[in-house]
Every structure is written in C-alpha cells, then in structure tokens.
Design brief:
- With about 250 residues, the protein is α+β, with helices and mostly antiparallel strands.
- About 25% of the residues lie in helices and about 30% in strands.
- The protein folds into three domains: about 5-65, no CATH class; about 65-140; about 160-250, no CATH class.
- It has helices spanning about 5-10, 50, 95-100, 115-140, 225-250, and strands at about 15-20, 25-30, 35-40, 60-65, 65-75, 80-90, 100-105, 110-115, 160, 170-180, 195-200, 210-215, 220-225.
- Strands 4, 5, 6, 7 and 8 form a five-stranded antiparallel beta sheet that branches. Strands 9-10-11-12-13 form a five-stranded antiparallel beta sheet.
- A hairpin with a 6-residue loop joins strand 1 (about 15-20) and strand 2.
- It is elongated and about 95 Å long.
- The structure holds zinc ion (2 copies).
- One zinc ion binds near residues 151, 155 and 160.
Amino acid sequence: MSNLAMATASSPTPTVQRSPHLGLSIVTAIVNGVQVPVACPAAWCTEKHTIENPRHAEDVDHNSDNVDVYTPNFRTDRDELFAYAHLGQDPYSVDEKTRAAHIRVEDGGGEASYLTPDQGNTFAKNLDAFGSEIRVLAHIARGAEPAAPGHFPWCQPGMCITGDPDEQGDYVDHRGAQSSVSAPQFMQTAEGTLLRARLCSDASTGGGATVSLSGSDSNGTLLTGDELDPVIDELAAFLDQLRVMRLHLKAAKA
Ligand SMILES: [Zn+2]
Ligand SMILES: [Zn+2]
C-alpha cells in the first residue's frame, strides 16, 4: 500500500494541533506520496491535504470554500456565476500579504483579484453601493407610477387626507408606504417598532416631500434628502457592525 493510500485510509481528516504561529495549525499533508507536517490555517482551510498529493510542500494550497454571486439572465433563462470569493493563504510565500490570510475574488471568466482584509471591506462597501445603484436602475426601468392629479407618485391610494378648506385652509396631507424595523420580542417600545419611516408631505413640510423618521419611543422628525443621506450611511455602517457581532457570537473563549 502506498503512503497516500495508507494516509487516506487511516486518517480521513488531518490531525490538528494548535501552533503558536499566526493562527496556523500543523496538519498532515501528503506531498509527493509522503506524509509531511504542514502549516495550515485549519480554522477555515477546507482543502483535503491528505488527498491532493502535490510535488512540493510549497504547492500545498490553503483555501476556504467559495462564496458565490449569481446574476439572472432572461436571455439564457439561467442564473449565471458572476463572481466568487474565498480565503487563501500561502505560508511559504515571499510576499508578506500572500503569506497572511487574504481574500481572492475571481470573476466568472477566472480573472483574480487579491485583497487584504481591509481591501475586502472596501470591496464590500463598493458592492453595497453597486447593489443600491442596481436597485435605482430597476426602479427607473419599471417606470414612474402614474400619480393621481394633485398627488405624488409615491402616495398610497386612500391614505392622503384632504383638509376642510373652510376650517384649516386648502391642504392635503400626503402619505406614502411605511417601512419599519420591528422590535425584538420582550423589548419595550411605544409601538412595537425600533425604527419607522414613511414618505410624507403636508403643510409642515411646505408642500415638499420628506421622510418622517421615528424611533422606538415614537418621537420622530422630518428629513429632507440631504438630511436623510447621513442617516442611510450610519444605518449601513450599523448593519455592518451587527453582522460582525453576529460572527463573534460563534467564537469561544480562548
Ligand atoms: Zn490547509
Ligand atoms: Zn397624496
């Protein structure tokens, strides 16, 4: 029986011992048919080192599983692979950035980009902005909703309130659809929401469109476009941090 067959038969998963070096572990790999210990970022590396059998230890690849993004295509009626990304690390590389864990992004055609963790965050931000722009394009492509005379395209049918011209003067209280974030169970809030937003326009906005934003205590304010932009940016950053916190919830104490 060859060393490779022995190793495959007797150790289907590499034996992991923690190493003090850079989060790398020493695992068993088969190199040129021989079992050798190699440094591997075993916390995320999903390569099968006891099966691949490269010629040289430097050729042992360390990669995580891919995360993919697909694009639908009505011409082919298929979801097509647009890009994918995974973690990589070459512990024997002469390049410091390649020697550290990094992100490799490849497009559907196989062109690769190599990103440090910070560059990964920058790229994620660019993708978020790209996603927002795609939503804008989709909104434009759908075409403007036909607006009722005297109303905005975003008015909810039947939701706008027309005042009595004799009593309050001639005005219409325009109301758009509401969007809200529900409060988690057992959290005390005024109306069961963390945040609530709605397009509106009335006498207090001078007839212009604004977004009414209110918090969990129901206290709110009216925001113009320029005032809403920083709120959108802060909420996006907050969501990022929530996702990072979610990842940390998986981590055990050292
Ligand atoms: Zn590995
Ligand atoms: Zn209206």
